[in-house]
Structures are given as structure tokens and as C-alpha cells.
Prior knowledge:
By secondary structure, the chain is an alpha+beta fold. It has a domain at about 10-45. It has one helix spanning about 35-45, and strands spanning about 10, 15, 20-25, 30-35.
Amino acid sequence: MEKLDVLSKCSLCEKSGEDLSLLSANHKEDGWMMVCRECWIQLYSENRMVSGSGSSSKGSSSPCSSCPGCGFR
């Protein structure tokens, strides 16, 4: 069986790596995206994310609790 190399890649800064952790962010203009911690902090501090869209919000109608906008069923 072939081994697949899966690299995580930030949607904003395009930083990538096997050990890169990505966070889900609901950008006000671009919608849901996966970003690195540094970009998430920057988006948050610049108020560029949709308010109340985090995966920890109660009553979320999202079918996938790990990534609120994916539509996974």
C-alpha cells in the first residue's frame, strides 16, 4: 500500500507542514477556511471573523462539530 503524504496548509499565509495545526475560521468576506494559529489570531484581532461562528457556540446547526461549515453528514 502506498503511503500518502498529507500536509496541512493555511488558507491565508500558505504555511504548510506535516505537524501544522489548523483552526476553522468563518471569514466575513471569504467564508469558512482553515488557518494557522497566527492567522486566526490576526483575523480575530482585526474583527474579520463572523461573530458567534466558533465551533463551541451552543445550538449550532452544523452537522459536523469539528468544522462548522463543511457540510459533512
